[in-house]
Specification:
Elements (H helix, E strand, L loop, with lengths): L3 E3 L2 E3 L7 H6 L10 H28 L5 H34 L3
Antiparallel strand pairs: 1-2
Helix pairs in contact: 2-3
């Protein structure tokens, strides 16, 4: 282990990839979710909101709507969640492209 100086700051005993310290941060030993699981849950939730929005639109078109206000809220939530999902996707693609441009 070497001492590393970064802009005047001295980092003593820098260890990269020490899995034991990461495991110690989770003392309850509960399994942590990885990025892929988190993204899958988010996509599933967006999909559920889209289906709810489609059902609300169908109910409005057929006249079977009980509460127009709740239908409008469901449609708005679906629209917003789709926009957020697209932005996350765009950021992930940009990060991937930036990694590809990184020289080793």
């Amino acid at each position: 282990m070497a001492d590393i100086k970064l802009d005047g700051l001295k980092l003593d005993n820098l260890q990269i990839g020490n899995l034991d310290s990461i495991k110690k941060q989770n003392p309850s030993n509960t399994p942590t979710k990885n990025f892929m699981d988190t993204m899958k849950e988010a996509f599933d939730e967006v999909n559920t909101q889209q289906k709810t929005s489609e059902q609300a639109l169908s109910d409005i078109a057929t006249g079977n709507i009980k509460d127009l206000h709740q239908a409008a809220i469901a449609i708005g939530k679906a629209e917003t969640s789709m926009k957020v999902m697209l932005e996350v996707r765009n950021k992930a693609i940009n990060a991937y492209k930036e990694i590809l441009r990184t020289q080793i």
